[in-house]
Amino acid sequence: MPMPPVKVPPVKVPPVKVPPVLKDRYGAELGATDEQAVALFDEAVHELVALAGDPVAKAGAAAAVDGELGLAFSLQAYLHCYLTSRTAYADARAVLDQAPKPACGRDEAHQQAASAWAAGDLEAAARHLERALLMAPRDLLALKVAQDLYFFLGDRVNLRDVVARVLPTWPRGTPGAGFVEAMYAFGLEECGDYRAAERHGRAALDADRRDVWAAHAVIHVLEMEGRQSEGTAFAKASAPDWGPSFFAPHNWWHYALYHLELCREPEAVAVYDGPLTALGLASPLYQVDAASLLWRLSLQGTPLARRAEELAGIIEATLGGSTYCFNDWHAVMALGLAGHLSTAADLVADLPGRATGTNKTMLDRAGLDVIRGFLAFAGGEYKLAAELLGQARPHAYVFGGSHAQRDAIDLTLLAAASAAHDENLVRALLAERLARKPTAEAAAHRVIEVSGARA
Question: Is the entire prediction scored with pTM above 0.70?
Answer without folding.
Answer: yes
